[in-house]
């Protein structure tokens, strides 16, 4: 499994913790920035990870900002990206099962480190259920197509 990670300054420390956690588990990671706690703009890194996941070079993306919200809004502007902002492992599991989410978004300022790692593990170890959920994910793609016209 190959994961692309990105954050702004508000998510920098949690992103590094996640990278250490994934590397310990033998999961391949690529840090697409930012690379310090200097102030920067979350849309830039949401877009980088979204493009990386869309290219299919990576299985999933993990993005972190202060709240997890701004960076997920940015990533979700890329067609085919389903970035889910999660604050607990139930939601992380459900969004994989039902929404086939391909990016996990976390907020360093709202989710503690242990819970965040638990969310990461739940997200990465859960498969899409397909079936009735497939139709609904396809409906999201139809909405994208409508606005790409
Ligand atoms: C940065 O201060 C902060 O606005 C950002 O990390 C994020 O929370 C935006 O949604």
TrEMBL record:
Name of the gene this protein is made from: rpiB
A GO biological process held by the record: D-allose catabolic process
Binding site for D-ribulose 5-phosphate: 8-9, 66-70, 99, 109, 132, 136
Provenance organism: Clostridium cylindrosporum DSM 605
Name this protein carries in UniProt: Ribose-5-phosphate isomerase B
Gene3D superfamilies reported for this sequence: Sugar-phosphate isomerase, RpiB/LacA/LacB
Pfam family, one: LacAB_rpiB
Classification via InterPro entries: RpiB, RpiB_LacA_LacB, RpiB_LacA_LacB_sf
Enzyme's top EC category: isomerase
GO molecular function: ribose-5-phosphate isomerase activity
UniProtKB keywords: Isomerase
Coiled coil, from the record: none
UniProt similarity note: Belongs to the LacAB/RpiB family.
UniProt cross-references to SUPFAM superfamilies, sorted A to Z: Ribose/Galactose isomerase RpiB/AlsB
Catalytic machinery residues: 65 (proton acceptor), 98 (proton donor)
Superkingdom of source: Bacteria
Enzyme Commission number(s) of this protein: 5.3.1.6
